[in-house]
Amino acid sequence: MLLPRLLLAATSLRAPRHLIRCSASYAATDALYLGDTSLLETTATVLGVEESEKGWTAVLDATVFHPQGGGQPSDVGTLGDANVVSVFADGRAGQGGVVYHALEAEPTFAVGDAVACRVDAEHRLRSARTHSAGHLIDVAMQRCGVGLEPTKGYHWATGSYVEYDDANPETRMTADERAALKPKLQAALDALIAEDAPTGVSTDAEGTRIVTVGGLPCPCGGTHVASSGAIGAVTIEGLKKKGSGKSTALRVSYSMSD
Q1: Which of 180, 31, 168 is nearest to 92 (CA)?
Q2: DSSP designation for 26
Q3: Rounded to a whole number, what is the largest CA-CA distance in the chain?
Q4: Comparing C-alpha atoms, which of 98, 62, 66 is closest to residue 220?
């Protein structure tokens, strides 16, 4: 049941072609946020500074910045006095991948410098809350007796949703069933948030990072809040059918409180 989410969580944006050629010269980036999802600051050594038609990027030996991937937007923040506007990975962050920090302008630091890394705390918290909420909806679906397999998540500040495989025509939910499920799902989600269950982060025997939200373990490379109560209020906006035939899915859309 967890394999589709694992594949999704492990996927990172691929680096632009001009950077892929350079990545072999860099050691894998130490993705510090995987070990401590609340870590927002560190000092790292600059391994590379590159300029392309798309702007400036920097590679460090270690980073607290989460790259875009797994349905979660990248962190933003600063490297020294340079603004980090997006982050992406060539390969799998934390498992041999190289993380690139896209900068707003040419930086003043150079290769070999130690640079202060600071993640924008408000942006990180919003992303972590939204991502944790997506996982908690999986738990709420189970509590409502819905055994559909999660396949996709979009954990951005607007337009957030989780999708479930609903391709089997014999068990596919009707419009009436979706309408009846919505209030039940909201009630289950509210109860899970009120329970304030702690979030667990561990690594299995194969080296896969496992995040447990609301008591449900799931392979995931994203950032999360410390407990379900820290997610805050979440509103189930709607349940609707997406696609057709073998690609039919149930999309559960949700929004976060400010």
Answers
A1: 31
A2: S
A3: 62
A4: 66
DSSP secondary structure code for residue 174 in this structure: P
| In a shared domain, residues 130 and 246 | yes
| Residue numbers of the domain that contains 176 | 124-256
Same domain, 106 and 185: no
- pLDDT per position as a tens digit, 65-100: 999 999 999 999 999 999 999 999 999 888 889 999
Half-sphere exposure of 182 (CA within 13 A, CB side): 16
The answer to whether residue 1 is domain-embedded is no
Copy the structure tokens of residue 145: 């007796």
Amino acid (1-letter code) at residue 103: L
Pair 133, 231 in one domain: yes
* Cβ atoms 55, 241 nearer than 8 A: no
CA distance from start to end of the chain: 32
State pLDDT tens for residues 180-193: 999 999 999 999 99
Rg for the chain, CA atoms, rounded: 19
> Per residue, what are the HEC states of 33-64?
HHCCCCCCEEEEEEEEEEEECCEEEEEECEEC
Cα–Cα distance measured from residue 19 to residue 63, given in angstroms and rounded to the nearest whole number: 18
256 half-sphere exposure, CB direction, 13 A CA radius: 24
Return the axis-axis angle of helices 175-195 and 121-143, rounded to nearest 10°: 120
Structural domains of the chain, count:
2
